[in-house]
Amino acid sequence: MHFTKDHEWVRLDGDVATVGITKHAADQLGDVVFVETPEAGKTVAAKDSFAVVESVKAASDVYAPVSGEVIEGNVALATSPETVNADPEGEGWFAKLKVSDASQLDTLMDRAAYDAFLATL
Amino acid sequence: MTDTPLKTTPLNAAHRALGARMVGFGGYDMPVQYEGVLAEHRWTREHAGLFDVSHMGQARIAGADAIAQFERFVPGDYAALKAGRQKYSLLLNAEGGIMDDLMAGKPDHDGLYVVVNAGNKDADFAYLEANLSGDAQLVVLSDRALLAIQGPEAAEVMAAHEPVLAEMAFMDCARLMLFGVDCFISRSGYTGEDGYEISVPNADAERIWNTLLEDARVKPIGLGARDSLRLEAGLPLHGHDIDATTSPVEGALTFALSKSRKEAGDFNGAARIATETADGPPRVRVGLIVKEGAPAREGAGIADLEGTVIGTVTSGGPSPTLGRNIAMGYVPPSHAALGTDLQVIVRGKPAAAEVVAMPFVAQRYHRKPKS
Q1: Which strands make up the sheet holding B218-220, listed edge to edge?
Q2: Does domain A2-119 have CATH number 2.40.50.100?
Q3: Do B317 and A36 touch (CB under 8 A)?
Q4: What residues of chain A lie within 8 A of the CB of B38, using their CB?
Q5: Which tens digits make up the pLDDT trace of A48-72?
Q6: What ipTM was reported for this prediction?
Q7: B369 has pLDDT over 60
């Protein structure tokens, strides 16, 4: 699993990347009340805002950690946004992307680097 | 944003000890949540929530001319207000814009006791200081903290400490000894629930806060839930839903305009209020239910069914009680009737909305029976 400084995670399986927000991000947001995930077929570039997550207080953008084409958004989050709090790095995934350049993952942090990054916040 | 360090209330250490997440609000370092906004919101609706609102401004206006002078800047009839009662009002500028909304009451026989918003208090007090004349003195009570206890069990919690408090009705106020110290107390709040606001000496605030939290019916509630609770109650937040450009008529706060004062027309903005009352205001604050999609938040456009933008959302979000997205905002009176179908524009996408009555969630004040 790889991580961004904006607190997204990405897990690569073949050329399919599953993307979500980290437990730290979910905890910071508090109760998630609304999630907007991208539709299949949409092309996104790394660092593009491609989803929205909303707590009671505010809406936050979610950025694509890597470039690619959306295969699937997690439509279950539309009716169960609280899954993002309950299992942010599992069932609370946001989207699956067909990655166009797997080498982009090399620019992201691994778990140890992300934990070290969190310790600086 | 400025680099001015945040001020703290006397309960800052208590919030941190409770594990609160702290944010800057109104120039103060304040708790936004403890266990979570939704849980705190629901606890307040079902039990009793305790809020630190010490960031708000407290003052006395004293002197023989206190009421007459105060009434130059507010549209409420404070001369007729009985001792032991308080009244919601609006501090108006010369153009009739709302500089702040406030509570002012007569807890004793020493003029008015006033509570104003944190972010406006310096400006409010400077304005009053500069403009009060004759025998009227503003005395800022910076030596006092302010607690609010709100919810259906708040009255029982407080009665356990002082039985006489059960006899107070909504908007009653008093000055009395509570927890062994000199307090101002009113039966009021900002959640739509029954409850009290209690002004206590700074030095006693943490002791009283902790004493109230010892009751299992009471939990600490942060500003996050305070905002979602007041939104459900249809109560405007100054600086968002009303501001110095908004008149009381536009703000749908005409209940705060006393009939006698409107007839006398002897206060800031009386001419504008008379004109807007007769001819209708250019815009008016309404409640909206958002029927689909994401919450519509401050800044979202409000459009008619043709897609023409006719107004703006001033606050909005999910209603934990209703399980629906609610908002308030401004539209022309032509589109303000209850039941009017409109759209809100969230991130460029229109979503169906409807004008509905406020409060969104019924208020449960402990009103005095009509005599």
Answers
A1: B173-178, B181-186, B195-201, B144-150, B48-52, B218-220
A2: yes
A3: no
A4: 30-31, 33, 56
A5: 999 999 999 889 999 999 999 999 9
A6: 0.86
A7: yes
